[in-house]
Structures are given as C-alpha cells and as structure tokens.
Amino acid sequence: MACEPSYSCIYSNPRKRKEASQDGTLLLAPSSGKVFLVSEEGERIASKPMKPEEMGKLASGGQLLLGGWAVELVELASTADAAAAACPPAAKPAAPPPRAPGPLRAAFAPRMRLATPSAAAAEEELVLNRGEEGETPVCVERRLAAALHPHQREGVQFMYDCLMGRRRSEDDEPFAGCILAHSMGLGKTIQALTLVHTMLRCGPQKVPVLKKALIVCPASLCNNWMSEWKKWFPTGSTSFRPRVLPPTKAQAILTVRDFIHCPPEKLLILSYEALRSHADALAAAPIGLVVCDEGHRLKSSAGNQTTDALRKQRSARRVLLSGTPVQNDLDELWAMCEFASPGSLGALAAFRARFALPIGAARDAAEGEEGEEGEEARRHGEAVAAELRARTARLVLRRDEAMLRRLLPPRTELLVCAALSAAQRAAYAEAVLARGAEGSASGLQAVLALRGVCSAGAASAAEDEEGCVLKEKGAEAAADVGKLEALMRLLPAVRAAGEKVVIAAQYRRSLDLLQAAFASRGWGALRLDGNVGAERRQQLVDRFNAPHATEFAFLLSTRAGGTGFNLCAASRLVMYDPDWNPAADLQAMARVYRQGQTRPVYIWRLLSAGTIEEKMYQRQLFKTQLAEEVMTRDCSVKEGRFSREELAELFTYDERCCCGTLALLQQAKGAHDPLALQREEGWRNEWVASLPDETLRAALEGDEELRSLVTYAADVRVLEELCDRQPGRETE
C-alpha cells in the first residue's frame, strides 16, 4: 500500500458556532481522486472528489468545505509519520476487537491520545485528574511532563485542582481560581503554558475543558510569552496557535473578531492596557480561563479599571502569577485572593478585623516597650498569622528562592556603599537645609531631590521624578557621582573575566549617565527603558543573550523591564537605584538569577553611604518581613529590625559614615560610637579580606583610589547575622 500524504486539521460545523471545534486528519488519496476527513478516533466523517493538481495547491492554514464541515489545515504530516500511520508493520496485525476498526481508524490515532486509566498510569508522566473514577484521564503531554521540575509539576497540579473544584475552602466551597506565587525565576510561565495547553486539548469528559483562554500581561512581556510558547510548542507540535494582539487599532480589532468567532483561535495574548480597550468585545467570546501575569497589578482592594475589565470576561476560572504577592500591606493579599476566587477570604472589613489589625498590632508591640500587654499582642499576632497562612495555602502556592537555590549555581548578594563626591556632598547638604526653609518644596519633593543627588549628582537636584536628559556627558559626569565613578572602576575586572552585567536603575537620568560613561570608554551596552517600544524589547533581550553578542552590559530600567525578561547571559547585576518597594528590586534581581543560569551570580546593591538610599534599603527590610510573616509557613511574627523612629530619620547625613546600616546595627548591639568603630585602624582591611566576591575583593585590593570610593562592602547575610545577634533577640 502506498503511503498517502495527510494534513492535521481542525473542523467544525459553521452552522453551529457554539459547538467546539474538533481535531482531525485530512487524508489525501491522489490515486482515487478523493480527500477524506477523519476524526481523532479514526472515524471517516466526510469525503469529496478532488483532482491531484488541486490537492497539490493545499497548504497549512488553508480552508475548505467538506461535507458540510469547515476544515482548516494545520500542518502537513511528515513523511515518516505518514509512513508509520498508513503503512503499519504487517507482522503485527491488530487483535480483532468487538468493533473492528477500519484502516483509517487504526492509521490516524490522535497526537495526544486520551488514554484509558491504566494506560495513563503506565505511559503518561503527569495525569492531572488521577484518582477520579469514570473520567477520561487529563494527561500533560509526555514531552512537557518530562521537562518539568518537581516544583513545576506540583504547580501545574495545584492550578488544575483549584480550577476544577478539586481544592476547597475551609467552608468546603470549591475555588474558582488560584495564585501561583512562586518566587521569580522558578518558571511560572512554563507552568501556566502547560496548564493552558492541556486544558485546551483535553478534559475529563472527553472534550477539552476550555474553548478559549486569555493570557494578560504587561505590554513588554507579550512577545516574551509568545517566545516561550514557540520554545515549548514548536510548529507542528499542537493543532492550535496563540495570537499576540497587534499594537495597531485596526489590526487589533480584526484579531479580536477572529478570536471571538473562529474556533481554531483558542489562545490570545494581550496587555492589560489592550484588555481595557477591548473588554466589551472580548466578553462575547467563550473564554474559559484568564491567566494574569504579574498578578500583583490587581492588588488594589478598591478595584481599578483593569480589574473591572477582567471581571467583564465570561470566565470564572482565573489564575494569577506573582512572585511578590504581598508588597506593602495585607489588603493587597486580600484583593488578589478576592479576584482569583471571590469570597475566599471573606469580606474586606472582616478580613481586616480578623487578620490585618492583630498582625499589625503584633508588629507595633514588637517595636515598642516590653511588657505583658505587648507579649500578649505578639502571641496573638503569631497565632493569627499562622491561621492566615493556613487559609491562603489552600489557594496560594508559595515557593521561595530556597527552591531556586537548589536548582541553580549559588547567588551572592552584597551591599556596596560608596562615598558621595565633594559636589554631591554640598548639593545634598543644601537639599537637606532647603527642606526646612519657608516656602520650600514638599517632603516628597525633598526626598526626590536627595535621591537625585545620590544617583545622578548635583545637576539633578532640581529634576523631576522621571528625570531629564543630562547635559553633562562622559567621564566628567561620572566623576561628579561617587557611586558611578566607583562602578566604572569596578567594571573593567568584570569585563576582563568575560562576564556580562545587567545594571538596573529606576530613573532615566541614571541610565543617561551610565550610557554616557560607557560610551566615553568605548564599551558596548544595550539599553531598555520606557522609550523602547514593547515589540522591540524582546529583540534587545535576545540580542544580549546571544553567544556572539559584543555588548557586555545591559542598562535596564526597573520600571520598563524589571519583570518577566530573562537575562541569564549575565552573571552579575548591579542595583544602581534602590526602590522603596523591595518587590521591585527583587524582580530586577530575578532577571539574571532564574532557570537557564549556568554561572554563579553576584548582585551588588550599590548605595551612597549614609544617605537616604541606605534609609530606603533599611525600610525594604521592614516590608520584606511583612511578606515573610504571612507567606512563609515556618516564619513566626518577628521583631522589626529597625524602629519606626529610626526609619523616619530620612533627612540626616553624616559624611564620616562608611555604612549607615552597619552603624545602626552596631548601635543596636550596644556600641557607644559606631562611627568610631568604622574608623578604627585595620577595619577596612578586615572587611575587604572577608568579601566572598573574588572579583570585587581583587579590584579593591589593587586600587587604593577605588578603596577611597567604596567605603564598605559585605555579604548581606553578614548584616542579617548582626541583626539576629542583637541583645534580647532569640537566635533561631
């Protein structure tokens, strides 16, 4: 028997648009002058005469009518597949079942076979509805299942269980959604794609669980999602294809229309902004699942336009992906859980009374005076936090960076403090004095002015928050900014070692200075900020990650590119501008420390010594503790590392200070004059010799001028250990 060519295809009844489309095969038989439409089960659905020359004009993406069915061709089967299907070995005849299959039924088995329970247990690596009697096994494609790490398999299973009502609340109510709160870099994207792919392909009732699905993400990540899809689902591996909503209005309207009315259009990737524009139109589509990337965007308990647009969609199933589900307060956690599965944590007022207020009171008591009332508040807060962790664990799956550390090379985070230049010190003192002057700028403006002095020098003291293009360029500008000059002296050692570096900054003015400093030295660097279009951002990322790339540095705006991107070609990251929100810095750090990283990673938190930047870092520690208390199972309510009074001292500056954070910890340990300790002979040599980063240590030991710029550096774990050894504090 000759091996006939065939196409995988999708077919549907155009008169019954509400019915789901089906996967099948179009068999071409030039010898008989016919084409046959065959279902996944091997049944012949329809046939029609067709001349061989007409068959030769068929192509992937083409459409035809066949016996009342609308057929869309997906791909031409390979010669090997066609031979294996149409020419089975004669020596192994099939055993005659009660209903003998025809040759077409035997020849064209579906690519993702709906196995019997026994076959699923033997052949499929991940069966999502295992243990459910009377259901068709919902099997993750074996190729995907084999590629998933154990924590990713757990995540896919968790999401499926929540969406299908297999996980329930304390009141035995089924959840409608969930939050996958894996730490950045643990592969939330591939977990979500595996779930969506599986639920669009099959289901427990022999039909797919979903007809259509949406993936909503920041605009800069749409192409990243598409790239990940192509990576895991290359052309020909699946019968449907996702679409990224085009940026132009006319094209977007047509794409939305196709998604709504065309059965083969099953998955649409779009930005939150685009969703708001097309929410009403998309509400007509039979969307069964909405996946929200960077789900902490939905953290407002009062709601917002994005939340309203998402609620307009018909889907009751929702998955939120977020590496930082708690950033500032517990209202954010409530808002995300309420959107994912309404009612899961009760009404907001009741949630605040039961959880937020006792936990807040415990923190206040920990920072106040010791006493019986304070101890009782701490005990009650600890019990309430444990109860909240237990409740949220039912619909929030949290896995922290400890999981990532087991999979990747080590990561070392260092605090690197640099002295202000003479011009910066004068400008900083002037900005502090101006705050108290009559008619001066508001407190917020004063904070912005101080931050501007630290990051971009005296010229930026009067600039707005977004920053302006600086007039000063090159080495002269770098010399006016202490930490920039220090960084420029450190980077040659990184470059000589053949390493790449990502420099993350919050403000455009910082990126302008960095870019000018790189250009003056003839160093190649790529830059991604808000001026780079969303469609071009992934191109820059791919260029930097390419093995042949000549640029050794990537200048990254934490506002425009701090989430989602994979920059694993770099093994070093410099946090140039700190953020009040620790989640923003953690997101930026995760660009290099994530799956795909093959080298030890070093992260430098570059701060101007004794300035508001150090106060911001100290405040970050306070906020990070809040997230740990409610999201980490084995973390009880702890004392705050710093008092509110200490954190409120934003406008103090002592140019003698080598590291304000270290001085604060030394003072907490009982040191009478911590600044004097930092000036003791031999102290500098001691901390330089203890640095775990060989590149940083060697650069400091070999450059005396650099040692005058870098006033202190240490592994952040050293500071944490100092904190844990404070008098009266229990060691864990």
Descriptive labels:
Rossmann fold; hydrolase; disordered C terminus; alpha/beta; 7-stranded mixed β-sheet; DNA translocase activity; 732 residues; SNF2_N; globular; hydrolase activity; 3 domains
- CATH class designation of the largest domain: Alpha Beta
Q: What's the number of helices?
A: 31
* Structural class by sheet pairing and helices: alpha/beta
Report the average pLDDT across residues. 80
Distance between the termini: 74 Å
Named at the architecture level, the CATH assignment of the largest domain is 3-Layer(aba) Sandwich
CATH superfamily descriptor of the largest domain: P-loop containing nucleotide triphosphate hydrolases
- Major sheet: arrangement of strands: 9-10-8-11-12-7-13
Stretches where pLDDT is under 50 for at least 5 consecutive residues are 78-124, 461-474, 633-642, 725-732
CATH topology of the largest domain: Rossmann fold
| Alpha-carbon Rg, integer | 30 Å
What number of structural domains do the residues give? 3
Morphology: globular
Fold and architecture overview:
This protein has three domains: 84 residues, no CATH class; 193 residues, Tandem AAA-ATPase domain (Rossmann fold); 274 residues, P-loop containing nucleotide triphosphate hydrolases (Rossmann fold). 43% of the residues lie in helices and 15% in strands. It is built from 31 helices and 20 strands. The strands form three sheets. Strands 9-10-8-11-12-7-13 form a seven-stranded parallel β-sheet, sandwiched between helices.
